[in-house]
């Protein structure tokens, strides 16, 4: 695994935010012939409206989809993992319709399948 570095002198962890938004269209279609995932798919995956989601680092994260309770389970859910570019960078506020599901320190190592973090300097 590659080490996640912020800068040569800064050892503070970067943060990751999981943001979700209901969509009427398949948000994954931009990647080709991918079927996308619905709110119902995620509810099944995490075992209910609250549960454990595996993040893009293959780590379990507790999330709640309660903000979407009562929504059509066949509606697409766009799940985004947003990483800070530096420890001092603020996350943008969620856009209308977006819900922050979790925020946590990024693991100290990046998995080999993830591209290296670009140096913001």
Written overview of the protein:
The chain is mainly β and 121 residues long. The protein has one domain. It is 7% helix and 32% strand. The chain has one helix and seven strands. It has a three-stranded antiparallel beta sheet, with no helix packed on it. The protein has a two-stranded antiparallel sheet with strand order 1-7. Strands 3-4 form a two-stranded antiparallel sheet. Strand 3 and strand 4 (60-64) form a beta hairpin. The radius of gyration is 16 Å and the shape is globular. The model is unreliable at 1-5 (pLDDT under 50).
DSSP strand count: 7
**In one word, what is the shape?**
globular
Q: In terms of quaternary structure, what is this?
A: single chain
Low-confidence stretches: 1-5
Number of self-contained structural domains: 1
**Could you tell me the strand content as a percent range?**
25-35%
- State the order of secondary-structure elements, H for helix, E for strand: EEHEEEEE
In short:
The protein has 1 helix and 7 strands.
Structural descriptors:
two-stranded antiparallel ribbon, mainly beta, globular, three-stranded antiparallel beta sheet, 121 residues
């Amino acid at each position: 695994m590659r080490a996640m570095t912020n800068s040569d002198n800064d050892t503070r962890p970067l943060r990751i935010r999981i943001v979700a938004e209901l969509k009427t269209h398949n948000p994954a279609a931009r990647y080709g012939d991918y079927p996308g995932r619905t709110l119902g798919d995620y509810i099944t995956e995490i075992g209910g409206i609250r549960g454990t989601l595996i993040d893009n680092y293959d780590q379990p994260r507790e999330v709640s989809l309660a903000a979407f309770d009562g929504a059509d389970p066949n509606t697409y859910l766009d799940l985004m993992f947003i990483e800070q570019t530096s420890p001092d960078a603020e996350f943008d506020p969620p856009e209308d319709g977006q819900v922050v599901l979790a925020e946590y320190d990024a693991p100290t190592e990046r998995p080999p399948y993830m591209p290296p973090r670009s140096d913001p300097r």
